[in-house]
Amino acid sequence: METSSLDQVRAAEFGAPGAAATTYLATAGCGLLPRRAVEAVKALAEENATGRRGGAGSSDAVDGARAGFARLAGVDPGRVATGGSVAAHVALVAASLPAGAEVLAPEGEFSSVVSPFAERGDLKTRYVPLTGLAEAVRPGTALVAFSAVQSADGRVADLDAVRAAAAAHGARTLLDASQSAGWLPLDAGAYDYTVTGAFKFLMCPRGTSFLTVTEEAQETLPVLYAGRLSAEDRRTSDYGPVRQLASSARRFDEPVAFLAYHGAEHSLAVVAGCGTDALYDHATRLAARFREGLAALGHAAVPGTSAIVAAPGLGDREPGLADAGVLVSNRAGSLRAAFHLYNTEADVDRALDVLSR
Hints:
Strand order of the largest sheet: 2-8-7-6-5-3-4
CATH topology of the largest domain: Aspartate Aminotransferase, domain 2
Number of domains: 2
Radius of gyration: 21 Å
CATH superfamily of the largest domain: Type I PLP-dependent aspartate aminotransferase-like (Major domain)
Distance between the termini: 37 Å
Order of helices and strands: HEHHEHEHEHEHEEEHHHEHEEEH
CATH architecture of the largest domain: 3-Layer(aba) Sandwich
Number of helices: 12
Helix content: 25-40%
């Protein structure tokens, strides 16, 4: 998709460039909702408020979002389970491991990715620097759990090296794509599990999360959330124990908030219409401009080509930037800025201008 096409989508879904009073660079915390997603949520809420038919929400919207995510992740919808949080999806994986299994993760990994394993109490959790993750996989490692892009500073993992090391030692892989899906191409089929909080770069409402599971891994994953929605035939499974669970990953679905998923279906369509490659080029170009600007001001950012930029030691500038209408994040003492579809070069320059004062 050409940049001009991105401009058209930006104008249609988020308003004309420069029209917003706020320069929003906090997508790594929560993405902005496209207009069509907002309208879908409002429509369902209005139906619910007025008692109109269908106001409770539709499983068709959930399945539409499932299919939309599957297309972006490069897998069949039968491998995708829906839910409300990364932590809940990781908990399924944690529950599948035998006592004493070793889980390897990067130091400083996002809490939702590692806490379910730590809280089991009978697993061996081991943490190493991200740069040494592949080399740290060893015989006996059961699972490598890591993010494609680190939340704290935007560093991108060496995905190929970690996958190769895990395969060499017979370890399964769990990839968190919450900070990458939507701007970094995702091949979910290359991992045993992926988890994605879709309210960041996929621009879905909060309460939208996706789990992908290979057919092999589905054999060992427990069905903790069994209920009507996880039945093969949802129409005849209202009462009594579910007679037949879904044959696909849908049997692992966590009951969802329909308002979130009615919006998610449309948000994912926006991302798909833009194309991940085009979004990657756009976001990383803006991030590179910001890194260069920071360097010119005497501030060294964490190096790399990520759409997320972290400047160590500048986290305390976050309140002042917010007062000036520039929203960023303070993570572990670093100023964190994230760039996406709705951002422009003017946003980069405005943030740099405030920082220069």
